[in-house]
Backbone:
């Protein structure tokens, strides 16, 4: 069966004062219908660039230099702008981290929801408004009839994120890209939004690409997960596999370094050092400067994604069993 | 508290192995070059300002003639001024004086008034703006209402009145312009202080027990210098323009001191048959004001960390 | 309590809301509305709660970075709220603060060395420049930064490194108490644990007392001995941290704990999903501030504010369920 979304080997670069520098390189993953795929990683590792590449919404100084992004068989990288606009908001919808800035402050909520309905579904203004109220109700907004006529600044952060979800859901997309949808929200509000996303996914059998840095959110929401480090995919597999048997030293370090609610630890294990900046990016394994298992080989040659188990790969030389044997 | 010898922390990197870099060949280009590339007009601005300064400083050397001498051969038989020619490169005015020498000497007045007036606004406006922004509350409300009044007032009329009372002279012109220009500086400084004051490093200094003086002048002031410099640069250009207006109206720099504004005023009467009397001083004024504006805009880009990449 | 280093008693901070040209006061934001707790010497007291519940305001009014509008703060037996300006400046060397934002909390125009020397200059700690420099190098070593970069500016450091600089600045005056206002919230997980460990080590080394403010419950639990939970400017529950996490009493604490996503896909949990949003502290609900969202809300909750009571030894809560 072919997947809904197939990202293979993309490299996205930005023009900086040092020429084009890649923000992500060799990023590949697939997403099936109705599946939730998580992308985790620390700040700056390229999660947002990955999602913006899929949406073809990179800023003017960025471009996809290699690879293909197939959505239902069509390569989005090669698609003309006009075609892409038809897909955006219709087949693929996106919600962003910052609920404060991603809604247009000068338009009423109702108008912002109706817009894509009128554009993509050819609804009349009146039809779109009725649908907008329905959508607001479906994302759990109380007093939906009144809220359609409010401006965004009158709503709280959690409410705005619900509105964003309502806008994203308007055209019943096949794929929803959620870039840190709950990071700016409080835990109790985050729980509400995650609950809502779970419900929507079940009802609409929608695929979700969920970007987050919170392993807890991944564990709760996702079927499969991609771990990124410094612009590369370092590990991928099913959520259960990754949490039961994390294999890349970075993933292991990341999991160990979160304080656990259920148990008391005397001291937190931690990964030493920092993510290297692009200027200081090592040529071999990008994690080599912080890895406790580093060998000469790691420094000389960059590992590829090596299989750990079926459907579980890690970009680390330790996965080559014969290497470990030495 | 004695410092123990133990190093309890994780080393910054665990490995001492030599690491090669993936993007070793990438080199950063010079910040100034990047500014010039992103905003090439700053170069034009810089050249214009530099040229103005050189001309003003070396006016005595650069001017071919004494600007006040009324040359008998500077007038045509009919008594009309001479158009640009061999001897008088920019022609003469209706008193037979060399226009080129007067334009060159006029730069001194323009620059002096522009600079001095901006400095006066700066020295009055900055402390008042800082105090207003930092102490807030009552002080701020009063100060802002005062600047409101100043800014709403017909500025030029006020200067006219002031200079008339003080007697027109170069120094009175720049004092009048400078004194009346402070509210804008104060407002901009206040806005910057309000923004900087909220940064946690200011709170941190307070938590360390720093007094108000230290916070205001050692911490806040250096952090608002960039926009103040930009504002002052732009102000110089505007103040030069104001000086010309005043001189044009006859209440600025008094004859025979050459000033671009008064030259324009004199030239206006004979514009029909001696247009060069307007062209040259007008053009000089245009270039000088443009120079300061371009330079100010360029500095703003330079100080804006997000713009110059 | 006699062994308390810091004792906060009914602390209140009401920000006036002003309107119109005359800036008349039309109401108050009750950012902190009667908070009391003690912090023993050498312990870490955690303060948790959601955004806007008044954690930062509590921390800053303890240090009088903002003047509290009511209540007392005792530090080492002295009533801090009554101290004069000069006395306050002196006592500041004993109470320090570490900020959340590793970008905004360092002066961009000071080098690391200048940043760390500043407290020494303010408090006249060292006679000459070479002694100050020696101390700066000591401090950098203590927080695990290389001394070779002390002439660099903050923008040349990563978030975690800046936070270390901020901690070193607080340590420069040899404080007894450090109020850490979300010191790791802006950091990446892998760096967060480095800074938590550092704070832990420094506490042991220099017998520091911490008030640790955070919204991340796992982090607070990890670092604190006792934890206070705030909601809308009030303390709703306070207990030993293990105790609080094992047996939360207040319905808000229960909901808060159950809302934390657990990084274990196989864990099955009962989840309490709270309805509605956090009300505004400018216009809090009547009675128990939590009642519009509380699942155990009773009639009395709507009219009468619950009392702050010791329900079990060392376990305080404000809720009518325990009357
Ligand atoms: N418009 C841009 N111009 C230049 N560089 C960019 C641009 N957008 C992103 N980058 C660079 O690409 C890298 C990856 O950024 P990205 O936003 O994808 O990180 P992220 O994983 O989403 O991080 P976060 O968790 O902070 O959102 C960063 O190093 C960033 O500096
Ligand atoms: N200077 C001020 N003037 C008016 N209101 C203020 C001021 N400072 C804070 N507040 C209000 O007081 C309340 C408490 O704010 P505070 O910053 O203490 O919350 P917090 O618990 O630290 O939240 P966060 O987790 O977002 O940092 C908020 O509603 C805030 O809007
Ligand atoms: S390849 Fe080497 S350096 Fe990289 S993660 Fe694996 S063991 Fe560590
Ligand atoms: S007092 Fe009542 S409303 Fe408040 S938390 Fe307790 S049960 Fe709920
Ligand atoms: Mg991002
Ligand atoms: Mg806060």
Residues:
């Amino acid at each position: 069966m072919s997947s809904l979304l197939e990202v293979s080997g993309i490299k996205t670069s930005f023009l900086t004062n040092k020429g084009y520098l890649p923000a992500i390189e060799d990023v590949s993953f697939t997403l099936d219908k109705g599946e939730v795929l998580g992308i985790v990683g620390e700040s700056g590792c390229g999660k947002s660039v990955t999602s913006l590449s899929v949406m073809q919404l990179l800023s003017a100084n960025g471009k996809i230099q290699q690879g293909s992004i197939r959505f239902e068989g069509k390569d989005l990288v090669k698609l003309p702008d006009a075609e892409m606009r038809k897909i955006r908001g219709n087949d693929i919808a996106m919600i962003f981290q910052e609920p404060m800035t991603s809604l247009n402050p000068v338009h009423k909520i109702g108008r912002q929801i109706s817009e894509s309905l009128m554009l993509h579904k050819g609804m009349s203004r009146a039809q779109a408004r009725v649908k907008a109220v329905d959508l607001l109700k479906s994302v759990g907004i109380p007093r939906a009839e009144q809220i359609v006529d409010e401006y965004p600044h009158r709503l709280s952060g959690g409410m705005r994120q619900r509105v964003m979800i309502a806008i994203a859901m308007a055209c019943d997309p096949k794929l929803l890209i959620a870039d840190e949808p709950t990071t700016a929200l409080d835990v109790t509000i985050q729980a509400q939004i995650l609950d809502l996303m779970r419900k929507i996914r079940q009802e609409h059998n929608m695929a979700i690409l969920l970007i987050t840095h919170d392993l807890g959110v991944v564990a709760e929401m996702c079927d499969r997960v991609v771990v990124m480090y410094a612009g590369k995919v370092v590990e991928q597999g099913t959520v259960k596999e990754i949490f039961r048997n994390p294999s890349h030293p970075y993933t292991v370090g990341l999991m160990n370094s979160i304080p656990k609610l259920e148990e008391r630890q005397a001291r937190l294990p931690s990964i030493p050092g920092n993510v290297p900046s692009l200027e200081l990016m090592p040529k071999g394994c990008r994690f080599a400067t912080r890895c406790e298992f580093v060998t000469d080989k790691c420094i000389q040659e960059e590992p590829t994604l090596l299989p750990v188990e079926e459907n579980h790969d890690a970009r680390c030389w330790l996965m080559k069993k014969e290497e470990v044997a030495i | 508290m004695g410092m123990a010898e133990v190093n309890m922390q994780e080393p910054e990197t665990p490995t001492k192995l030599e690491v090669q870099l993936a993007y070793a060949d990438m080199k950063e280009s010079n910040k100034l070059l990047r500014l010039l590339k992103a905003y090439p007009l700053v170069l034009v601005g810089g050249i214009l300002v530099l040229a103005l300064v050189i001309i003003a400083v070396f006016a005595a050397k650069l001017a071919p003639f004494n600007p006040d001498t009324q040359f008998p051969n500077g007038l045509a038989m009919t008594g009309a001024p001479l158009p640009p020619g061999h001897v008088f490169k920019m022609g003469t005015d209706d008193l037979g004086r060399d226009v080129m020498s007067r334009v060159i000497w006029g730069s001194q007045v323009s620059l002096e008034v522009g600079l001095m007036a901006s400095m006066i606004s700066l020295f009055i406006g900055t402390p008042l703006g800082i105090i207003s922004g930092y102490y807030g509350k009552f002080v701020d409300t009063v100060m802002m209402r005062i600047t409101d009044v100043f800014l709403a007032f017909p500025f030029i009329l006020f200067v006219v009145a002031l200079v008339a009372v003080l007697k027109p002279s170069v120094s009175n012109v720049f004092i009048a312009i400078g004194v009346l220009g402070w509210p804008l500086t104060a407002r901009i400084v206040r806005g910057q202080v309000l923004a900087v004051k909220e940064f946690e490093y200011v709170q941190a200094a307070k938590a360390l027990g720093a007094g108000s003086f230290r916070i205001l002048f050692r911490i806040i002031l250096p952090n608002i210098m960039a926009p103040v410099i930009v504002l002052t640069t732009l102000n110089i250009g505007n103040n030069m323009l104001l000086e010309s207006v005043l001189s044009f109206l006859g209440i600025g720099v008094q004859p025979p001191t050459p000033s671009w504004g008064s030259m324009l005023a004199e030239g206006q009467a004979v514009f029909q048959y001696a247009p060069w009397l307007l062209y040259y001083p007008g053009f000089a004024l245009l270039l000088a004001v443009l120079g300061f504006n371009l330079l100010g805009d360029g500095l703003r880009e330079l100080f804006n960390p997000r713009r110059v990449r | 309590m006699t062994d308390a280093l810091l004792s906060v008693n009914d602390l209140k901070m009401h920000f006036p809301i002003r309107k119109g040209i005359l800036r008349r006061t039309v109401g108050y934001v009750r950012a902190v509305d009667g908070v009391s707790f003690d912090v023993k010497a050498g312990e870490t007291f955690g303060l948790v709660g959601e955004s806007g519940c008044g954690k930062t305001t509590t921390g800053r009014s303890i240090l009088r970075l903002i003047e509290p509008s009511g209540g007392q703060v005792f530090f080492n037996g002295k009533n801090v709220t009554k101290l004069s300006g000069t006395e306050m400046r002196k006592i500041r060397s004993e109470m320090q603060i570490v900020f959340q934002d590793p970008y905004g909390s360092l002066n961009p125009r000071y080098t690391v060395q200048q940043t760390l020397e500043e407290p020494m200059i303010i408090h006249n700690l060292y006679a000459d420049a070479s002694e100050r420099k020696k101390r700066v190098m000591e401090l950098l070593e203590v927080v695990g930064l290389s001394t070779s970069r002390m002439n660099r500016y903050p923008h040349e450091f990563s978030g975690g490194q800046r936070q270390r600089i901020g901690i070193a600045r607080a340590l420069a005056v040899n404080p007894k108490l450090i109020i850490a206002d979300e010191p790791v919230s802006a950091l990446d997980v892998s760096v967060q644990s480095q800074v938590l460990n550092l704070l832990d080590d420094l506490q042991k080394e220099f017998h520091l007392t911490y008030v640790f403010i955070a919204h991340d419950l796992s982090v607070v639990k990890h670092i604190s001995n006792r934890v206070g939970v705030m909601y809308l400017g009030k303390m709703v529950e306070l207990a030993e941290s293990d105790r609080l996490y094992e047996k939360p009493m207040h319905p808000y604490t229960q909901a808060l704990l159950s809302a934390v996503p657990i990084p274990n896909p196989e864990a099955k949990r009962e989840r309490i999903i709270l309805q509605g949003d956090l009300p505004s502290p400018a216009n809090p609900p009547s009675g128990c501030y939590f009642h519009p969202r509380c699942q155990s809300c009773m009639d009395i909750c709507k009219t009468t504010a619950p009392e702050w009571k010791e329900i079990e030894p060392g376990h305080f809560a404000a809720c009518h369920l325990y009357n």
Remarks:
- Chain C has a mean pLDDT of 90.
